[in-house]
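User: Hi! I have a protein structure encoded as tokens and I'd like to know what sequence might fold into it. I'm fairly new to this, so please keep things simple.
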């Protein structure tokens, strides 16, 4: 009805029929003078057309009725609305003061409060005066307030003549404060607010926390005007001083469980959602159903059931709750059986899990696991994308009964996509038939080659490599190259080439880094030098942190000392790198070519190879994936080196001693031949032109030498005796 009258008045004012609009307002006022929501709403329609004075006069007519009926909050709302319409009208100032005298007739020293708030001052802004009035009427001796810096305080005295009040804060007793400052600096809180109760007697709250924690949470929720708040707020109010930081987690875990069964409190399903205090009790069944019905996402509904209803509980629920849930699960199965078989399977097994409470649960649906799988695009994809690991284990076990003639074939295919949690069960079932051993070895070989497309199976192989149960099946993979496969898989995830999966990354790291690198040690013992050196290079370029790389390579050195030479090269890479501007630009171009041309081209090659069919037999796909790992490592290496480049500053080069960017003549004293070399940056070498990098062995010997200085240079067990004949700075082109 309100909207109808507002629209009618809006239309009248739009065509400038003010008198007719006022007549309708007066008629409504006569019918029901207490309909404050309606009249405040109508005042906005008048204000839009500039009829503030008329709206204020009409709204003022209803305020005496509200005061007589002791509808204090409605009256104060109407008074403020009138002030918003006419903030500087002298008559309205006087009427407002009279209204306050009636509303607060028993309030001590009201006239002084009206004066301090400037309600009686006709030149003041009446809206601001009303705001101050609201605050001042909330302050009384004995009432509690909060200061942003000093915390909770108790007002002990108010002197309106001197316009000062005194407050006892925890750290500031009898602290004087100007009323004008208090209006802006203090927030009134009720006597039953948790902070006020802590001020009065914190020990009582501690006893309540011990004996009746739910009641304590009710006090906290009641401290908020909305009677609701989130867990971090509850933690802030209780953890440090009432419960204790060390005891908080244990206390909250116990209390949280009690709250879920309390008929007055609604517990949230997610973090950062509100705990809500209800005015009326709600049965646990209704609470759960209300929470369930609020969920719109199917996955959220299934998770809710698993959390609250699946397992037997101490509480006894009415059977009607489970019937309602079962009917909804049936709809989820029906809607998704053709379009999302994974979700339909999760819903089916969730429905099955309710049989403890509702034995006939499965009779609600016409579908079963077989009918859902038969409609699936592929069985392995349906199982892989299920949300619950326990249901994945259940369906993989049921497949033997659902497909008695071809379950082994299904298992073989399923292994490539299977979650890690069910791989062990599948392999154990397959090994019950010895004829399956060659098939499994072939599956492992394919997983080993595919790297990222059978990642769970590859990890399972690594995890079980030294298990006596699978020793014969996995013996062909007992080599350090398996470590490279795991690192390549980890890097593919870290780089985002494969959708980043922190779970598999962490599993790989745990396996290769734990127990003082025992896994790596065992692989090294049975690996040859060539493989060890190759994998060591991979480790130097992988995404592991520097400390772990060094620790792993230290294990490599104990078996293959030649790895030290790789580590020396790596240390050179870690230092500042000197380069000419041309050399730097050239390498940047190489990086851009890898990033913008070769990697996208390789990604396309992977997609094309993937389309060729069965990845287990697709060697083009394997080669493309291996090339991708090489390109990613090269990209990371170039990015790392380029970030350390220092461009050669030719202005600082002189002819006093050999340095980068100098051209020198040296005499071979064994045959008196003169040789000329230009020492330049890391990527500037052109040996046929006599230009060498400062990192070459000869350049390292030359740098720092002075004119006429002699030195001995050894390489490949042969010594050369040289003398510096000439040094000149190289000028940039």
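Assistant: Happy to help. Inverse folding works backwards from shape to sequence: for each of the 733 positions I chose a residue that suits the local structure. Here it is:
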């Amino acid at each position: 009805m309100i909207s109808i009258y507002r629209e009618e008045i809006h239309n009248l004012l739009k065509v400038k029929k003010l008198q007719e609009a006022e007549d309708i307002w007066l008629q409504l006022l006569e019918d029901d003078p207490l309909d404050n929501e309606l009249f405040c709403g109508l005042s906005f329609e008048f204000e839009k057309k500039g009829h503030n004075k008329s709206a204020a006069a009409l709204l003022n007519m209803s305020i005496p009725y509200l005061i007589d009926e002791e509808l204090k909050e409605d009256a104060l709302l109407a008074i403020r609305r009138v002030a918003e319409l006419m903030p500087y009208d002298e008559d309205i100032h006087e009427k407002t003061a009279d209204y306050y005298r009636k509303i607060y007739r028993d309030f001590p020293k009201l006239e002084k409060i009206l004066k301090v708030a400037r309600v009686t001052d006709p030149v003041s802004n009446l809206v601001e005066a009303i705001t101050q009035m609201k605050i001042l009427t909330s302050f009384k001796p004995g009432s509690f307030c909060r200061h942003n810096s000093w915390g909770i305080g108790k007002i002990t005295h108010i002197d309106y003549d001197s316009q000062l009040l005194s407050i006892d804060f925890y750290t500031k007793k009898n602290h004087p404060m100007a009323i004008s400052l208090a209006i802006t600096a203090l927030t009134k809180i009720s006597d039953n607010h948790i902070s006020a109760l802590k001020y009065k007697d914190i020990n009582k709250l501690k006893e309540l926390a011990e004996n009746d924690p739910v009641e304590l949470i009710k006090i906290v929720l009641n401290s908020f005007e909305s009677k609701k708040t989130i867990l971090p707020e509850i933690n802030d109010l209780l953890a440090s001083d009432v419960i204790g930081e060390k005891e908080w987690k244990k206390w909250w875990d116990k209390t949280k469980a009690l709250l879920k069964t309390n008929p007055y409190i609604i517990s949230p399903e997610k973090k950062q959602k509100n705990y809500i205090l209800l005015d009326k009790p709600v049965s646990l069944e209704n609470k759960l159903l209300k929470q369930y019905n609020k969920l719109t996402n199917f996955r959220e509904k299934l998770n809710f059931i698993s959390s609250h209803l699946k397992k037997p509980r101490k509480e006894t629920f009415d059977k009607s709750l489970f019937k309602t849930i079962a009917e909804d699960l049936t709809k989820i199965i029906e809607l998704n059986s053709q379009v999302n078989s994974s979700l339909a399977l999760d819903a089916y097994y969730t429905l099955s899990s309710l049989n403890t409470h509702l034995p006939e649960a499965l009779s609600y649906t016409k579908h079963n696991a077989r009918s859902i799988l038969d409609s699936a695009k592929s069985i392995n994809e349906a199982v892989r994308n299920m949300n619950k690991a326990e249901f994945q284990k259940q369906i993989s076990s049921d497949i033997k009964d659902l497909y008695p003639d071809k379950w082994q074939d299904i298992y073989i295919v399923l292994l490539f996509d299977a979650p890690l949690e069910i791989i062990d069960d599948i392999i154990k079932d397959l090994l019950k038939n010895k004829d399956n051993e060659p098939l499994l070895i072939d599956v492992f070989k394919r997983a080993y080659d595919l790297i990222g497309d059978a990642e769970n199976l590859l990890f399972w192989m690594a995890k079980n490599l030294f298990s006596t149960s699978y020793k014969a099946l996995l013996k062909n993979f007992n080599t350090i190259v398996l470590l490279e496969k795991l690192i390549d898989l980890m890097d593919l995830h870290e780089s985002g080439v494969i959708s980043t999966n922190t779970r598999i990354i962490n599993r790989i790291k745990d396996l290769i880094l734990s127990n003082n690198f025992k896994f790596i040690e065992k692989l090294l013992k049975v690996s040859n030098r060539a493989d060890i050196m190759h994998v060591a290079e991979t480790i130097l370029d992988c995404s592991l942190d520097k400390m772990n790389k060094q620790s792993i390579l230290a294990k490599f050195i104990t078996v293959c000392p030649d790895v030290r030479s790789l580590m020396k090269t790596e240390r050179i890479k870690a230092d500042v790198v000197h380069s000419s501007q041309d050399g730097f630009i050239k390498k940047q171009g190489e990086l851009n070519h890898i990033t913008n041309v070769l990697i996208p081209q390789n990604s396309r090659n992977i997609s094309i190879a993937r389309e060729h069919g069965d990845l287990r037999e697709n060697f083009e796909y394997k080669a493309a994936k291996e090339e991708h790992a090489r390109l990613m490592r090269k990209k990371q290496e170039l990015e790392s080196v380029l970030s350390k480049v220092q461009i050669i500053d030719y202005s600082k080069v002189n002819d006093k001693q050999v340095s980068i960017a100098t051209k020198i003549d040296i005499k071979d004293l064994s045959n008196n031949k003169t040789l000329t070399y230009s020492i330049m940056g890391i990527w500037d070498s052109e040996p046929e032109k006599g230009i060498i990098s400062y990192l070459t062995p000869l350049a390292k010997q030359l740098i720092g030498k002075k004119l006429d200085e002699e030195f001995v240079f050894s390489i490949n067990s042969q010594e050369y005796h040289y003398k510096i004949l000439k040094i000149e700075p190289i000028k940039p082109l």
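A useful reference point when you look it over: The chain is about 60% helix and 10% strand. Feel free to ask if any position seems puzzling.
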